[in-house]
Design goal:
single chain; 16 strands
């Protein structure tokens, strides 16, 4: 196998994405996660641009990494000064990273319009900066910014910029599709021209503005690239960077390239979700390889087939990237879905058991009313256990009342919920306020139950979604409420449907509490 070096820039380029921001402590934790995953280079930031990145390079020195090299990012020197007097260059060296990566202008349009210098002076900027850094750093990488646009506009000059970098003794020349507009079919001819011009190892850095970042990266590897840059989950400016969560398994499992070990590859999904969590973003369930839906099967024919031979509808075994096969339950389901879900929940069901048909009919009837179980597997498990008579009765809600009061026009409404629950032979009657009626009901239900079930204090609500179901009834329409709850060890989804949004929320809330109690009992 050919070794492909993986260069992660989540902590620098990834943080330029909308809604993505990390504290210094987050960046340290992510660097450790990437190191454990097996990433070869971790770009920590641009120490010359902000105090946060300077702090990262100071703190990461105290962290013992297994294999990853820490890279600092910056630019070539400014025109009209020398590298030793350029504050950006000096800051890069002072950060004392394992590797220094700088970018320079490749596109003549940028040289004229952004730098406002001559083409020859830009070549001097590139060569002088890299040669100076090579005297002060063990490894130096050059990012040829806008290389593909520059090559298409002026191929001779774009190649001269690479020659200037190579003459400075740079360790890797990274070709950047900075605007993300290049298509895969353009790569072979351009890379062939590059390989005829320079002998330094080549890297690739692509953006996803044309939805081709992953495809372009793989095409580049097929044509001699040995250094791949990208971000976890494709975080990055505009439409994002090349997604390493798709690139890595494609390299390892499809192209047979050495990059991560099999054991490291199995950490891919957990690394993806860990970084989503620290970014405070909801994971993309439809993300290739690592998303919840990547190996999820809904149609009964599909489910029946994968139970015999998974490869019928799965392009790889999901366990290889740390994922799992999931069987979804919907009105498309057949008996095979129900049996597969029962097995997943350790419920003993037989295909000839009348309860199986009963559950199937009930699901179809409920989904006809607007229920959806793809995101509410906890509600589905409770439904099955109720049908089998194996679900313990934890509590009864005798009744509840929710009041919203707006006392003044310029003040927020006040929400209060009162609830009566019965646990065993004891009735608990409590009230609680909240930020809105659903939060008040949630607080009141917790207050009533926590004295009986203290473990409910560990549980919290992570997500709450309301969907108005299409019926043409305006404000009298049915609504579906999906709630994601969790504790320190897991998360689960529940659902409720009603023409009253409070009632739909109540159904989903009660299921969430019951599932927590049931889960902890097992």
């Amino acid at each position: 196998m050919n070794l492909i070096k993986l260069y992660d820039t989540t902590l620098r380029d990834g943080t330029q994405g909308e809604d993505v921001s990390f504290l210094v402590a987050d960046k340290i934790r992510i660097a450790q996660q990437l190191d454990e995953l097996g990433i070869h280079y971790i770009e920590g930031g641009w120490p010359g641009s902000n105090p946060k990145d300077i702090a990262f390079f100071q703190e990461i020195k105290q962290v013992k990494l297994q294999q990853a090299k820490i890279a600092a990012f910056g630019s070539t020197r400014r025109a009209g000064t020398t590298p030793d007097k350029d504050s950006n260059i000096r800051t890069l060296i002072q950060a004392e990273p394992d590797v220094i990566t700088i970018f320079g202008k490749t596109w003549d349009f940028h040289v004229y319009e952004a730098l406002r210098i001559s083409l020859e002076e830009n070549l001097e900027l590139i060569h002088d900066s890299l040669a100076y850094l090579k005297r002060h750093a063990g490894e130096v990488i050059y990012d040829a910014e806008h290389f593909f646009d520059g090559y298409k506009a002026n191929p001779d000059y774009a190649l001269k910029t690479l020659q200037a970098a190579e003459a400075a003794g740079v360790d890797c020349l990274v070709l950047c599709d900075t605007n993300g507009g290049t298509l895969p079919h353009e790569f072979p001819a351009i890379l062939a021209a590059v390989r005829k011009t320079v002998t330094t190892p080549l890297g690739i850095h692509t953006h996803n503005d044309s939805e081709c970042a992953v495809a372009n990266t793989l095409m580049a590897v097929e044509h001699g690239i040995v250094h791949v840059q990208g971000t976890i989950n494709g975080f990055g400016e505009r439409c994002g960077n090349a997604n390493l969560c798709s690139i890595i398994p494609a390299l390892r499992l499809k192209l047979g390239k050495e990059c991560l070990s099999d054991e490291q590859l199995r950490r891919l999904r957990s690394a993806s979700r860990y970084i989503y969590e620290l970014a405070n973003l909801v994971p993309n369930k439809h993300q290739a390889y690592v998303g919840n839906s990547a190996f999820a099967h809904k149609g009964g024919v599909h489910v029946s087939a994968i139970q015999r031979h998974p490869e019928t509808y799965e392009h790889i075994r999901p366990e290889r990237v740390g994922n799992v096969t999931r069987v979804l339950v919907s009105d498309l389901s057949g008996r095979s879905n129900i049996l597969a879900k029962a097995e997943e929940f350790n419920i003993n069901l037989d295909s000839k058991d009348p309860v199986t048909l009963e559950i199937l009919e009930e699901i179809k009837e409920m989904e006809n009313k607007g229920y959806m179980f793809e995101g509410a597997e906890a509600s589905f498990e409770l439904l099955m256990r109720k049908a089998l008579g194996t679900l313990r009765h934890y509590f009864s809600v005798i009744g509840f009342r929710v009041i919203d009061t707006k006392r003044h026009e310029d003040e927020k409404p006040l929400s209060e919920a009162t609830i009566q629950v019965k646990v065993g032979g004891k009735i608990e009657h409590t009230a609680a306020e909240g930020n809105g009626p659903v939060n008040a009901l949630d607080n009141a239900l917790r207050k009533a139950l926590e004295s009986f079930y203290p473990q409910l204090r560990e549980m919290r609500l992570f997500d709450y979604k309301v969907r108005v179901l299409p019926a043409g009834n305006g404000t009298a329409s049915f609504t579906r409420v999906l709630i994601e709850s969790g504790d320190k060890s897991s998360r689960w989804g529940t659902v409720g449907v009603s023409d009253n949004i409070i009632d739909a929320s109540y159904q989903a809330l009660v299921d969430a509490f019951i599932f927590k109690l049931h889960k902890d009992q097992e």
